[in-house]
Amino acid sequence: MGSKQIWWAVIIIVTAIVSVPAVMLASQYMLSVERGSPMSYGIDGAHLSALAFNWQDVDSQQQTFPLDEPSYTYLFMGFLSCSEICPIRINQLRELESKIDNSAKLRNLPIKFMFITIDPDNDTPAVRQQVIDDQSERFFSAALTAQVLLALSQYLSENIQAHSPIQNHVGNLYLIDPQGSISRMYTSKQLSTDKMLADLQQIIKAS
């Protein structure tokens, strides 16, 4: 085999290898469309166990999660003096809420936004009330005991370090269904609220 033929053979093999993932992805998409369930934007969390924990609201009242009123809940953990991911997440949820309120199909459904502080000493009830709970009736904040906070952060892989002077955390966003199951996980810093809305509509329709 001449050198020219060898080069053509190499090109054909490389092209085939590169094309396989694209073909598989396209096949997965077509299969999902045929089944009436478009590919989701967020990561499917069906393999994870449902969440259940106690928390304290801004009035120092003990509450439970899942909520007493069955709701679809967007949950994220952070601290209010955070200058990186937390302000981005709050703004994303504000934008998402606006889209929900503009949707005739969604505006009257129980959809909540839950912020869990990882810095309860500084994120006092008054501060949480001002920054989170006063946003709207959909927004609420929670403080957890140190033991519950550490267990939840480890389960969600938030990488919170107990007793660390630096409040490190991942800042992922989770969509929880009324039974406490994780329907979607959003790990990107920048998110499309239009695609998140489509995820929500798909999940509600399938429930």
Automatic annotation (TrEMBL):
Per the UniProt record, one Pfam family is SCO1-SenC
Q: Which family does it belong to?
A: Belongs to the SCO1/2 family.
Q: What is this protein called?
A: SCO family protein
User: Does DNA-binding show up as a keyword for this record?
Assistant: no
Alphabetically, the GO molecular function entries are:
metal ion binding
- Transmembrane regions: 6-31
Taking the record's annotation, the residue ranges forming a coiled coil are none
Q: Which domain of life is it from?
A: Bacteria
**InterPro entries named among the record's database cross-references:** SCO1/SenC (IPR003782), Thioredoxin-like_sf (IPR036249)
Per the UniProt entry, the disulfide pairs are C82-C86
